[in-house]
Design brief:
8 helices; 4-stranded parallel β-sheet; alpha/beta; Rossmann fold; 2 domains; about 45% helix
């Protein structure tokens, strides 16, 4: 019997943990798999080990593991499969087929644009936009983000779009914010490419509270719940089941 195990990143912020689980709950309602469980890589419970154990207790004979992450990077490529490999040593007869994260998808950019419009009804053509990503030392993150920015500009026709990261790669969002404010735009829209509230969202809020400027700064909401996202997660689960790719951890020197 097939089980789908959704693996969320995890957050120290309780509200972020609850939002992730509530989201997965809604996704489970749209997916026909007989067994579905959710767990966290870190910072929250249940752990991956507990998630796997629950699937097997419920009768799973194969597990489709889906990283509930926005982009391919260290967590999706290394941390989650490494943890799964260790856990699955206890269940040598149960195959695990590993899926892809959400990745660069035009529909995600549509959600991002919708979040921008939640901050204001009409966006001036000359508005400055700062897209904020989590960041990663994996070069694939910056490549993916460059593609997200390209699609975003193509769809909105906005020219003044910039990218800043919260950690692990540059430009750092606070520096980029400072640089953009030196240009004294009338409006600056801060658009976080984050799934849920958490330490990173709180960090952006604190930075903006301390910022002194005559520019009108609009902080848009995080991506949060959207039916489009669970449609993509369902696709990732179907792709993984069809492809039957096992756990592979790239070697890092």
């Amino acid at each position: 019997m097939r089980a789908i195990l959704y693996i969320c990143h995890g957050s120290r912020v309780k509200k972020g943990q609850q939002a992730a689980l509530a989201f997965i709950q809604k996704t489970m309602e749209t997916e026909a798999a007989p067994i579905q469980e959710a767990c966290f890589l870190e910072l929250a419970d249940p752990s991956i080990a507990v998630g796997v154990a629950r699937c097997i207790e419920r009768g799973a004979t194969e597990i489709i593991a889906i990283p509930f992450l926005l982009l391919r990077a260290g967590h999706a490529n290394v941390d989650i499969p490494t943890e799964l490999q260790v856990v699955m040593m206890n269940y040598p007869n149960i195959p695990v087929y590993y899926g892809d994260p959400i990745g660069v998808d035009e529909r995600m950019v549509d959600v991002l644009i919708e979040r921008l419009h939640r901050a204001t009804e009409s966006i001036p053509e000359d508005a400055s936009i700062l897209l904020i990503g989590r960041g990663s030392s994996d070069p694939a993150t910056k490549e993916d983000f460059a593609e997200i920015k390209r699609i975003f500009q193509e769809k909105t026709k906005l020219q003044n779009v910039h990218v800043g990261y919260l950690a692990a790669c540059g430009p750092f969002y606070a520096k980029e914010l400072e640089r953009l404010l030196e240009q004294k735009p009338e409006n600056l829209y801060i658009l976080p490419y984050l799934l849920f509230t958490g330490i990173l969202m709180k960090s952006i809020e604190r930075t903006l509270q301390k910022t002194k400027t005559t520019t009108a700064i609009h902080l848009c909401p995080e991506l949060g719940y959207d039916p489009v996202i669970h449609a993509i997660l369902n696709e990732r689960a179907d792709e993984a089941a069809e492809r039957k790719r096992g756990l592979y951890v790239p070697h890092h020197a």
